[in-house]
């Protein structure tokens, strides 16, 4: 067994977190790692992994205990998800989309304001969704991106939902919809359209659209650089009708969540935290002559290799420390400093995962980058982290610079 990414004693994990991470690590090594090359080679969805995750209970990790799940909070989930990412980036990233549909509707909305009647209705609806996950093994995805500025959070989503009878009629298109064709429900963000009024971000709706609803189609090819097992094809919604119970959050709540619980956008980082660790794991195994699939040739005695490994470890420990601090302070209404730290952590994990993988390739050398070994996949998968909206590496830098120099309401 690999050592934990986050040593329970060193990072003072709770007993629950330590146990969850140990189980995630065991599952990753036993189930995810042996199959990871296949999904990558074929750009196919890790169906067999989801069968095992379903059987072993991982789909309900963030559903509250009183609602039948494992009750992991934000940090516990992030720590476990990093262990998944260490062994299969594509599975961890797609699992994250699914888990967010429970984390955001559960723990996160519990922290937000709504009147008692709205809360009771929401709890009733989420029980329905959770029942599908826990009882029927349903998998949810999170297609938000549309190719315009909406996924960056600056304008309203162009996919619209209009009231129609006891439900909504949806029109629009999503790009990069991970789990396309494989999720049972697409948890889309769209804008509720009121008559001819201009679309507003305040009217964002979060709806669960069944994959077989008339008018839903999966379109386009999927042959990307990395994260190939995510199968992030396009989704089209042509006059798709869903009942009111499809609401994963009450109207207006997503807008409140995005403003008051900004760490919600950090959930893409655990996968890349795991990939960063995987780059160092590989390098150490390889230089010691212990990487399965390679001859037992040792390269660890060269000072240049030792320096490279030392630099990688320093970068990894810096990344872990900042990320751990940021995921530990996630919650409602964070201070400005905490939000800046979260953005810095997001930027650091995404950029450093790619930098560590690149350094691993340079340090280990030519034979290490053959496609028969995991490093080549880690290198490509890790490159995709910085591109994830709304907190891409560029947008993090934009916001950190602006918000460090300006207080609310200030302008030049
Ligand atoms: C493997 C993979 C899986 C994905 N899975 C999902 C998924 O399941 N669901 C989902 O919703 N999306 C998903 N995405 C999409 C992802 O979150 C981004 O939406 C997508 O990568 C953006 O691509 P784009 O070319 O449209 O970027 P653009 O919007 O053209 O942006 C290009 C770059 O410009 C910068 N930029 C963008 N907007 C602004 C702005 N307003 N101001 C300043 N700079 C800006 C950003 O740094 C961005 O990286 C996935 C992407 C990948 C690579």
TrEMBL record:
Keyword RNA-binding: no
Ranges for domain Acyl-CoA oxidase/dehydrogenase middle: 156-240
Catalytic activity reported: dibenzothiophene 5-oxide + FMNH2 + O2 = dibenzothiophene 5,5-dioxide + FMN + H2O + H(+); dibenzothiophene + FMNH2 + O2 = dibenzothiophene 5-oxide + FMN + H2O + H(+); dibenzothiophene + 2 FMNH2 + 2 O2 = dibenzothiophene 5,5-dioxide + 2 FMN + 2 H2O + 2 H(+)
SUPFAM superfamilies, per the entry: Acyl-CoA dehydrogenase C-terminal domain-like (SSF47203), Acyl-CoA dehydrogenase NM domain-like (SSF56645)
Pathway given in the UniProt record: Sulfur metabolism; dibenzothiophene degradation
Keyword Lipid biosynthesis found: no
Name assigned to this protein: Dibenzothiophene monooxygenase
InterPro entries: Acyl-CoA_DH_C, Acyl-CoA_Oxase/DH_mid-dom, Acyl-CoA_Oxase/DH_mid-dom_sf, AcylCo_DH-like_C, AcylCoA_DH/ox_N, AcylCoA_DH/ox_N_sf, AcylCoA_DH/oxidase_NM_dom_sf
Organism encoding this protein: Sabulicella glaciei
Residue ranges constituting the Acyl-CoA dehydrogenase C-terminal domain according to the UniProt record: 271-383
EC number(s) stated in the UniProt entry for this protein: 1.14.14.21
Keywords, comma-separated and alphabetical: Flavoprotein, FMN, Monooxygenase, Nucleotide-binding, Oxidoreductase
Domain Acyl-CoA dehydrogenase/oxidase N-terminal: 19-99
Homology family: Belongs to the DszC flavin monooxygenase family.
Subcellular location: Cytoplasm
Source species, domain of life: Bacteria
């Amino acid at each position: 067994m690999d050592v934990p990414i986050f040593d329970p004693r060193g990072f003072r994990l709770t007993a629950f977190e330590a146990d969850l991470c140990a189980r995630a690590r065991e599952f990753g090594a036993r189930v995810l790692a042996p199959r990871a090359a296949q999904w990558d080679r074929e750009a196919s969805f890790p169906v067999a992994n989801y069968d095992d995750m379903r059987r072993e209970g991982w789909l309900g990790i963030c559903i509250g205990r009183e609602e039948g799940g494992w009750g992991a909070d934000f940090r516990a989930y992030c720590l476990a998800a990093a262990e998944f990412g260490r062994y299969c980036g594509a599975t961890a990233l797609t699992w994250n989309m699914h888990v967010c549909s429970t984390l955001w509707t559960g723990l996160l909305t519990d922290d937000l304001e709504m009147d008692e009647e709205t809360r009771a209705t929401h709890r009733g609806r989420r029980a329905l969704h959770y029942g599908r996950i826990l009882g029927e093994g349903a998998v949810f995805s999170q297609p938000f991106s549309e190719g315009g500025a909406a996924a960056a959070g600056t304008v309203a989503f162009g996919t619209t939902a209009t009231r129609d009878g006891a439900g909504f009629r949806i029109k629009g298109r999503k790009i990069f919809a991970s789990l396309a064709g494989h999720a049972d429900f697409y948890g889309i963000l769209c804008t509720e359209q009121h008559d001819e009024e201009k679309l507003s971000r305040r009217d964002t709706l979060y709806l669960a659209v069944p994959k077989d609803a008339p008018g839903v189609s999966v379109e386009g090819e999927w042959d990307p650089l990395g994260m190939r097992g995510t199968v992030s094809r396009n989704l089209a919604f042509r006059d798709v009708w869903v009942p009111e119970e499809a609401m994963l959050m009450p109207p207006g709540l997503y807008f409140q969540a995005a403003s008051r619980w900004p760490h919600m956008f950090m959930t893409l980082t655990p996968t890349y935290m795991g990939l960063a660790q995987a780059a160092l794991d590989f390098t150490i195994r390889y230089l010691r002559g212990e990487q399965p699939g390679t001859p037992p040739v040792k390269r660890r005695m060269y000072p240049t290799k030792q320096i490279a490994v030392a630099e990688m470890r320093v970068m990894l420990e810096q990344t872990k420390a900042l990320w751990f601090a940021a995921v530990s302070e996630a919650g409602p209404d964070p201070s400005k400093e905490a939000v800046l730290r979260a953005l810095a952590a997001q930027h650091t994990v995404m950029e450093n995962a790619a930098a560590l993988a690149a350094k691993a390739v340079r340090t280990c050398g030519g034979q290490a980058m053959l496609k028969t070994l995991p490093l080549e996949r880690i290198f490509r998968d890790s490159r995709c982290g910085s591109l994830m909206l709304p907190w891409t590496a560029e947008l993090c830098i934009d916001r950190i610079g602006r918000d460090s120099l300006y207080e609310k309401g200030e302008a030049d």
